[in-house]
Structure formats: C-alpha cells, structure tokens
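Bug #2210: token dump truncated for Inositol monophosphatase?
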Amino acid sequence: MHQLPPETHTDIDVDPAELARIALTVAVEAGRLVVDERPVGLGVAETKSSATDVVTVMDQRSRDHLLARLGELRPRDGFAGEERGARASDSGITRVVDPIDGTVNYLYEIPAYAVSVAAAVGDPGVDGAWQPVAGAVVNPVTGERYTAWAGGGAWRSIGDAQPRRLQVRETSLGQALCGTGFGYDADRRAWQAAVLSHVLPQVRDIRRLGSAALDLCRVAEGSLDVYYERGLNPWDMAAGWLVATEAGALVSDLHGRAPGAELTLAGAPVLHSRPAAVPEGAIEQVGPEIVR
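Reproduced locally. Full output below:
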C-alpha cells in the first residue's frame, strides 16, 4: 500500500475491520433504498460538470441516508462525497462516499452501479495526502458485496453468502482484459480516446462498464486484469482502491504515486510494472493537458 506523507498519521482508535463492517452495513441499506424506492419515470434532478454528468433524486436520497446513518454509528467521523453534506473529521477518520457510482447506468437501468463507502485517513481533498483503511462496494442489483480493510484482505460475496477472499489474476499484457472509463467534459473525452488508440492494440480487449468502484473491484477478483482512468475523484476510487490493493493489485498514478485525478492505474504487479495498459510515452504523445 502506498505510503502517506510524513505529516499524515494512520493511528486510529478503532479496528479497521469494524470500519469495514459499518461501511458494508450502510452501503447495503443505501443500495436497497435506491432499488426498492426508485420512482417510476426517474429523471435528472441536476447536472454537475456538464449536461451529461447527472444527479438523480435517488443520488440525493442515498447520500442523505448514508450521512444520517454514519452520523449515528460514527458521529465524530468526517464525511466527503460527490454530493453535498461534507463535514470535518474529529476522529482522524473521514468517510469517503459515493451514493450511486455509475449514475448514468442507474438512470438507464443498466445493472452496473454501486454504493461505495470507505473510511480514510488524511485529507481526501489533496491527492497523495490520504489513504483508505476500510471500505465496501455494493451492487444492489446483482447482490455483489466487496469489502476490505487494511491488512485484512479483500472479500466478495453475493447477498448473505459466505465471503470469498480475492486475489488479483496474473497474466501477460497481450492477454489482459482492460477496463477504462470516460469523463463528461468534451476535451477530456477527446484526450481519453486518443490514449485508448495506443492501448487497444496491446491488450486482449477493452471494457467500459461505467462504474470506477466496480471496475477496481473487478481487478481484485480477476474479471478485469487491468484498469485505468483519468479524472477520478476520491469518492469514485476510495473503497475500490483498497479492495484492489488488498487483493494484491498495485494501484497508483502513472509514476507510482498514490492514484488521483491525473490518472488511476490498477493491475497485478507483473502488468502494472509495464506500466501495463497505458504504454510509456502514450500520455506525452497525446499531450499533457491540465486535468479539467
């Protein structure tokens, strides 16, 4: 796992396994909410970075549920997420939450979205200054539940079935199934498409599934071999980052530092060292634009 800067401390007064249990409990609850109480004719409540980057009323309801429940269970923890409701930490722990990761999939009723809840130390607002120590990712449609905590491994279950420990899959680059995603800003999408043209000839195939949290968990379980994406926020990656790491994946930016908005790259060590699905020089050939 990546080392935090010297000023960031990981000493916490609670077992990370307990933080993961709480994360799973509230993520399952929020997942049931967004499935069971989805309104007929669900539409867009508001937009974020562009007209295609949407928020639904159920994103907001899921956020409100998570904010309230985490406030009951861990009232001194901070809260950081995609939607409103941020609060500062008084415990050394911040809950980094995405109430629906894959909102467009949710809007179109594509069953590839998740509730992602992590517990992190450090400041999630600063790349490289924070780190997840526990987390859960729940797909409420399929029943898939992924959990991890620092030093405790990564685990997957379906519904209430016995969890199975995850281990990243080793393979060659030419046989690697690669996951990625695209942003909502037109300039970023053009950049991502240009990078993809360098990646595609070198791997088995590409998948774009629409949820960064689930993509990172798929690397952990081996249903993807490698994953990369530019423009992720802390709430997109926090729980999935830990699940992948605890399954033996390396998760970093292109230069081996902690993952962040510039790039998040995850894969088995043998692939990551290439650095796998983003060939050396591809970023520079396309152009090192400032992340928007």
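Output looks complete on our side. Confidence is low (pLDDT under 50) at residues 1-9, 46-53, 275-280, 284-292. Marking as cannot-reproduce; reopen if the truncation happens again.
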